[in-house]
Amino acid sequence: MPSPHTLSPTRTTTPAIDRTPFCTCCPGATVWLTGLPSAGKTTIAYELADRIRAEGRRVEVLDGDELRRFLSAGLGFGRADRHTNVQRIGLVAEILARNGVLALVPVIAPYAESRAAVRARHAASGTPYLEVHVAAPVEVCSVRDVKGLYARAAAGELTGLTGVDDPYEEPESPDLRIASHTEPATESAQALYALLTERGLA
């Protein structure tokens, strides 16, 4: 799973503007990849983003760690704060999507109520929205443990970890369910690309 982006050093010159034309043949949309920590959400999102970008589409990956650090700094990990964080990310995604960008959101979003509110926001503006459940089981995720969170929880250094001592409410009827522990990320991204194509979004 790729590491979160790091900030670039302060620039002393104005960066060149990328004037590469973008394809506008497909509408923008939000694709929310929900699942447990270390399920593979971010890896799949970047795999898909590379393919979409190569086709000339505008695409953004809204990394949950980055957004926590900058958009939701000060929020905790209780239910109310998690809900607020998801709504903020949902707002950013919806703004991007209704302006023609494919917004890929690999964010846990553990509560069904929070995800439903984001879907409702998109529906209200007529913006396409897809929910994808990256469904690796906790037994697999805890072995992958990309960020060391499961190890810290097991050592008693971390509480409130989704899927361990904080609930994860699995989507009942996602637009796509990916068993990411049974296939490489390239295949998962291909399945998601196929869904976008089927819905006229790729």
Structure characteristics:
single chain; 202 residues; alpha/beta; 11% strand; globular; disordered N terminus
Describe this structure in words.
This protein is globular. With 202 residues, it is of the alpha/beta class. The protein is 40% helix and 11% strand. The two termini are 24 Å apart.
State the assembly state of the protein chains.
Answer: single chain
Provide the gyration radius in Å: 17 Å
Structural class, by secondary structure, is: alpha/beta
What kind of sheet is the major sheet?
Answer: 5 strands, parallel
Question: How many H/I helical runs?
Answer: 7
> What is the distance, rounded to the nearest whole angstrom, between the alpha carbons of the first and last residues?
24 Å
Mean pLDDT level = 90
Q: What is the topological layout?
A:
Blueprint: E1 29-34, H1 41-54, E2 59-61, H2 64-70, H3 79-97, E3 102-106, H4 112-124, E4 129-134, H5 138-144, H6 149-154, E5 176-178, H7 185-198
Parallel strand pairs: 1-3, 1-4, 2-3, 4-5
Q: In brief, what are we looking at here?
A:
With 202 residues, the chain is of the alpha/beta class. It is built from seven helices and five strands; from the N terminus they run E-H-E-H-H-E-H-E-H-H-E-H.
